[in-house]
Amino acid sequence: MLYNRTRSKLYVLYLIPHKNQFKIDAIKKCSITINRSNHLVGSLIIQHRQFRTKVEQSTSTGLGRGSDERDGRQSEKRFSFFKLFEPSYLEEFKFKKLADSSKATNDEKNQLKIAFAEGYLAAKNKKKSSFFESFGRIFGFVFIITSMYYLVRLEGRGLKKIFMGNTHEIAPEEIEVTFSDAHGIDEAKEELQDVVEFLRDPEKFARLGGRLPKGVLLVGSPGTGKTLLARAIAGEAGVPFFHASGSEFDEILVGQGARRIRELFEAAKNKAPCVIFIDEIDSVGGKRSSSVLHPYANQTINQLLNEMDGFRPNEGVIVLGATNRRSALDSALLRPGRFDIEVRVSKPDLTGRKQILAYYLKKLKLAEDIDVDVLAKRTLGFTGAEIENMCNQAALKAALDDEEGVTMKHLDNALDKVKMGPEKKTKIPDNEVNRLTAYHEAGHTLVAFYTKHADPVHKVTIIPRGESLGHTALLPDKDYSNYSKVRMLAELDTSMGGRVAEEIVFGEENVTSGAASDLLVATNLAKSMVKNFGFSDRVGLAVHVNREEMYNEFSNTTLENIEQEVKRILNESYERARQTLKTHKKELDLLAEALLKHETLDLEQIKKVINGKPLDIEDK
């Protein structure tokens, strides 16, 4: 690259300015012979291309005049480059000095001019190359920005729809659910049969001047089967099914939720007759606000109201909405003309629970001791989803135990797990606490056993689950729509049994807070008896609402009478439970000892213990 002393050759290095730095472009070999006396060892011939000034433009060759001025003006830009070449064998070489040298021949000067011209052309070509590179970078940047803009604008119609299609639509052949798969909700199915007929033959109703319902609102607790019913409607009618969640319409960008509503209904109209199902509709159809901070908050629900009310007759698009918070919906959404039909999806009754249990147990490999009737009675208040979870938990437990099939024991354990939580793996090591828990649960059991009109006892256990140290399970004969006064009093006595047993055995000063939940249940029941059910002669038949702000409608005397009556009912129940356990103190001790020994007892074992018969089960 540099001057070679032995061969007396000079290599010219062409450097091109690139982003305030210098870049090596080419190396040219010159046949210039320089005497050894010329101190050119390590010198460089540098072609530094910059914008030309008026002084530079006046020079004919670009080699003499104007070079010094240009070097001075560009000293700051060249400084960063020369800092890289600070070793002593490098120094600045100027064309003017060599061109004006008296020792250089004409041929050598001509060769220097040729070398400069080649350097100039190389710099010019390099400048063109960098222009195209810059253009490519700018074009790529603009392309990325444009693509991102259209993806944001199109959102749901962007990459998701390009590669996955419209995920809101389900074709009729993909829906395999029918009304035969929905159990325990027969009343709701009967209401929705009419909707299926509307979808199957809309012209049948149009001939008589009828109008198709625009919307059906499904209201019920979580897990009762609202989504299942919506899919069953589309499956029975054999029509396309569009589904969306209310939260999908919530957007931080103004107008995006309303746009999605328009697109959903537009797609549905093109596939009519069809069903649009909006789950958790309270998220999009909540009550409108007039907040100044959120002036556009009502755009989405306004668009929904407009789309539902804008249907033409017999258009064949029915909107199904599901919610467990009906009170949160806007009143304009609930009026006839939008949601014409409202269907209550309640928790299954005893017959419904039997049907649901039979449906899910049919999928399991069962032992011979399964009693569906007992399970149906014990699952009072369970939804279909909870029953399904119970059956699944029982199957998992049986698999962990390496059993050939699911037994009644597994189902009973799964039921307690769903209702109260999982078992505590380690038993509480405190014997005093275990003994107190055994007497507490034995008190509940004996009061229920000896009290007329109380629900039958199913089992009692002192195995901790969740926040409970023990549990007494009752098994009602049937589902009750109305509760009589004697049944409520019997339930009060049973709730007091645990606290009374602690007092009888351990003394009044040693009772614990373990009865807190029992006392809460008893207090609420006693208040309902006095204020809502008219079961107090002193207060009378007037209904007293639970909201404290409404108490001002009644006199202080009435409020005092309510408090005294609640206290009287609780005290009388406590005394009846005390009398029962004092009468059966021997049975109380036997049952508590049996629980400490075996931990869990069913009804037949409880009867044997009370009658003084030995138990034929292994010690725990």
Structure overview:
The chain has 620 residues and is α/β, with parallel strands linked by helices. The chain folds into four domains: 119 residues, no CATH class; 177 residues, P-loop containing nucleotide triphosphate hydrolases (Rossmann fold); 71 residues, Helicase, Ruva Protein, domain 3, CATH 1.10.8; 180 residues, Peptidase M41 (Methane Monooxygenase Hydroxylase, Chain G, domain 1, Up-down Bundle). The protein is 48% helix and 10% strand. The strands form three sheets. Strands 3-5-6-7-4-8 form a six-stranded mixed sheet, sandwiched between helices. The chain has a three-stranded antiparallel sheet with strand order 10-9-11. Strand 5, helix 10 and strand 6 form a beta-alpha-beta unit. Helix 10 packs parallel to helix 11 and helix 19 crosses helix 20. The longest helix is centred in the N-terminal third of the chain and has 49 residues. It is elongated.
